[in-house]
Every structure is written in structure tokens, then in C-alpha cells.
Inverse folding.
């Protein structure tokens, strides 16, 4: 488990050296970082249980309880686990999983008629972790420093959190930003099937024009729409306090139901749906920054997507072809033998609801947002959203791809292309 964390993360992403604990049927590795959220890797008999289960729940409980007892302080368990990075592996006789893919452990006992997993984890962590912290006081000091930092931040936002939640609750009664669907990801298994819950989707759009087209074309059963006012705040480098101070962010986190954790996430697929222009790309980046900064687990667990919509409609009297790139457009023009009417969709609002239905139905094109294991989120966001504009401008200028009709036939000079790059940066 120690090697696993060492492979996936750079050493400077940890607050203190990895704590490695090993027993006969269990192995644990853990540290704390600086990111928001908790990051776990769990295994049963060598099987990667990506959805956790009883062993991971027991581990979380045991770590919180042990550290509180070690420091003789009633720290909030959420503060103890804030930014934790951990891996836990146990051996269980005849394990029972909650799904055929064996990604979530359902067993409550280590063996038939044996010790419970909860008791086993608690006893092991309580003894081994406590002994480790007594042996390495510098690690204990680093853990407590991180806990107190999380505690200070939580108390700092407590006052505005109450007011913000009251506003959000009031807005939910008449929330014009959210056009909800009927079936949600966190619905009970008795009322909806797993397939229906997995189909639950929310589109995050910019402005009334785009949201209007999607709303008219969507499936009311499974697809919701959340409309932004315009460009959201660049929240890089800010604390979670801004999520409550900014009404739009607060309403978004409540619509998704992710304020405390992903346990009751309302939509399986959270889809960023912005225009295919410079402003749309900027809004996409700002939303990606919001989720990566404050809710990275949403990305890690594969719930965040980008909606791909066609850039061009190429048609003649008998055929219509939708194209998602300049290359596809040229092929379509050639197929229609040059006698085609070409429409460039710059905004989602320009696509009629009848057409939009084809793009968010069974053939919907979604690009998953994938966070590569071990990615230093702070470093990533600092490069793309920090105050290093000259560095980004140089990168864009040196890597600019010019694909429009004007640039393809060299009608745009290099000097203007450079200005375009500066505008992008």
C-alpha cells in the first residue's frame, strides 16, 4: 500500500512521510495533503473495491476515533479526515460484494461466524496508529496542524454557511436556475432501477438562450438543467468560504447535493454545456476550476463530463450532416459535392430544440473529465488559472493551431494570429 501511494503521488504532495501499518490480514498506508476532499484506495483479497464498502467505512471511523483519542481532543471527524490520502487492504473469507463487478464490499464479518470487520479495523488502527504516533511525534504534530487548519476554515465559514443555506433553501422552492428531472442518482432502490438512476444527468449551461434549447429538448425523466448567469468567478486560490459567499456557487452545490460529501449526489452525470466560442471555453475552464478546487472527488469518481455539440451543419436539399470539427466539415462538403449550405453554430441557443434532441438523446457525445492519478491539482490549477499569463501566452503562441477557413487559406496574417492567442490567454 505504501508503494501504491508513492507511485501515484509526488513526495511533495504529502504533509508528512507515508504512515505504513501492516498486520496479518490488513495493510494500511496514509498521509495528508493540501487538497479538498478525501482520497482512498481500498482492496479486498487483492480486488480493487473502487466504491469502498464496509471495510472502508470502518477504516474512516477508526482513523477519526484513534486520532481524537490520541490528542485527547474532540476534533470533528471531518476535520481529522480532511485532505487525507489513504490505502487500505484486508483479507476476508468468503467476501460478499454488493455488485457483480465486486467494486463494493457488503460483508460485515472477516469470516463466517468470525470477528466483525468494524471491530477488526478499529482494534488494529487504534493500536498500530496510536503506537506509530507515539514513536514519531513529528508526524503527530503534522497531523494535528492539518486538523487545526481544517477546523479554522470550517469555523470561519460557519456564520455565512448558515445564511447561505437559508438562501439556497428559499431559492429551491422557486429555483429558476434549476429545471429538475424526476429521477435522481440518490433515489432509493425500491422506487427506481440502477439503470434509471445512472441515467440521471444535469446540464450546466450559460444563460437563458442555451438553457432554453436544452430544456425544451431534454428528457424530463432523467435530464435536469442548471442555468448560469454568465461567467462564474475564478475561484483558484480561494478558500471554500467563497462557495457560500457566491450565491451561484452555493446554489450549484445545493442542486448537486455535494455540500458535505458525494454520498447523496443527485445526478450521476454532471455535464458542462457551454458555447463553442472563446467565452464558452472560458466558462468551461472556470467551472472545471470550481470542481477541481473544491470537489475533486466528483471528478475522481467519474461524474463530470463535457457536452460535445456540432460546430457545423452541412446540408443540401436531400441530406443534413452535423460536423464536430473542421475536418468533418470538409468531408461533408466533399460528400455533398460542394453544393452545400453551411451553418456555423457559435452558441447552443442557435441550435433549435428539435435539433438539440438528437444531440442529448441516445447518441449523446460526452467527453469525460479524467483526473490522472497522482495529479497535483494545485500545480495544475496554478498553471492554467494562476497569475502566470505571460507563460501561458508563450505556450499558446508556440502551439497555436489555425484551422478556420480564413486562416487555412492564409488570409489571416501571423501578427493577427498572435493577437488571437493573447486574447485566448
Amino acid at each position: 500500500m505504501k508503494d501504491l501511494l508513492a507511485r501515484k503521488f509526488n513526495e511533495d504532495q504529502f504533509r508528512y512521510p507515508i504512515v505504513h501499518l501492516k498486520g496479518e490480514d490488513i495493510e494500511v498506508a496514509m498521509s495528508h495533503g493540501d487538497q479538498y476532499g478525501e482520497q482512498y484506495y481500498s482492496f479486498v483479497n487483492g480486488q480493487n473495491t473502487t466504491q469502498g464498502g464496509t471495510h472502508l467505512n470502518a477504516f474512516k471511523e477508526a482513523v477519526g476515533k484513534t486520532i481524537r483519542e490520541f490528542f485527547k481532543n474532540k476534533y470533528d471527524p471531518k476535520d481529522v479526515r480532511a485532505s487525507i490520502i489513504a490505502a487500505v487492504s484486508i483479507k476476508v473469507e468468503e467476501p460478499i460484494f454488493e455488485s457483480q463487478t465486486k467494486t463494493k464490499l457488503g460483508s460485515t464479518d472477516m469470516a463466517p461466524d468470525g470477528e466483525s470487520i468494524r471491530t477488526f479495523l478499529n482494534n488494529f488502527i487504534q493500536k498500530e496508529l496510536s503506537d506509530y504516533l507515539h514513536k514519531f511525534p513529528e508526524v503527530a504534530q503534522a497531523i494535528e496542524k492539518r486538523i487545526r487548519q481544517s477546523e479554522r476554515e470550517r469555523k470561519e465559514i460557519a456564520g455565512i454557511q448558515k445564511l447561505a443555506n437559508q438562501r439556497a433553501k428559499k431559492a429551491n422552492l422557486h429555483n429558476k436556475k434549476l429545471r429538475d428531472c424526476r429521477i435522481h442518482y440518490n433515489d432509493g432502490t425500491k422506487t427506481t432501477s440502477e439503470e434509471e438512476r445512472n441515467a440521471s444527468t444535469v446540464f450546466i449551461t450559460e444563460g437563458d438562450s442555451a438553457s432554453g434549447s436544452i430544456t425544451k429538448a431534454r428528457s424530463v425523466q432523467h435530464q435536469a438543467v442548471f442555468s448560469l448567469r454568465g461567467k462564474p468567478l475564478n475561484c483558484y486560490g480561494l478558500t471554500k468560504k467563497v462557495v457560500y459567499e457566491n450565491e451561484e456557487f452555493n446554489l450549484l452545490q445545493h442542486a448537486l447535493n455535494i455540500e458535505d460529501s458525494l454520498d447523496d449526489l443527485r445526478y450521476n452525470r454532471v455535464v458542462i454545456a457551454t458555447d463553442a466560442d472563446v467565452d464558452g471555453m472560458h466558462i468551461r475552464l472556470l467551472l472545471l476550476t470550481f470542481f477541481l478546487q473544491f470537489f475533486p472527488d466528483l471528478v475522481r469518481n467519474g461524474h463530470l463530463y463535457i457536452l460535445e455539440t456540432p460546430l457545423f451543419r452541412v446540408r443540401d436539399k436531400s441530406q443534413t450532416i452535423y460536423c464536430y470539427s473542421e475536418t468533418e466539415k470538409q468531408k461533408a462538403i466533399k460528400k455533398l459535392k460542394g453544393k452545400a449550405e453551411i451553418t456555423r453554430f457559435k452558441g447552443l441557443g442557435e441550435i433549435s430544440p428539435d435539433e438539440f434532441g438528437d444531440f442529448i438523446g441516445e447518441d449523446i457525445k460526452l467527453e469525460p473529465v479524467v483526473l490522472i492519478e497522482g495529479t497535483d491539482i494545485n500545480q495544475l490549477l496554478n498553471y492554467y488559472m494562476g497569475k502566470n499569463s505571460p507563460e501561458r501566452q508563450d505556450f499558446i503562441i508556440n502551439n497555436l493551431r489555425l484551422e478556420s477557413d480564413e486562416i487555412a487559406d492564409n488570409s489571416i496574417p501571423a501578427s493577427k494570429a498572435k493577437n488571437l492567442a493573447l486574447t485566448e490567454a
In short: The chain has a mean pLDDT of 86. Residues 3 and 29 are 9 Å apart (CA to CA). The first strand starts at residue 19 and ends at 22.
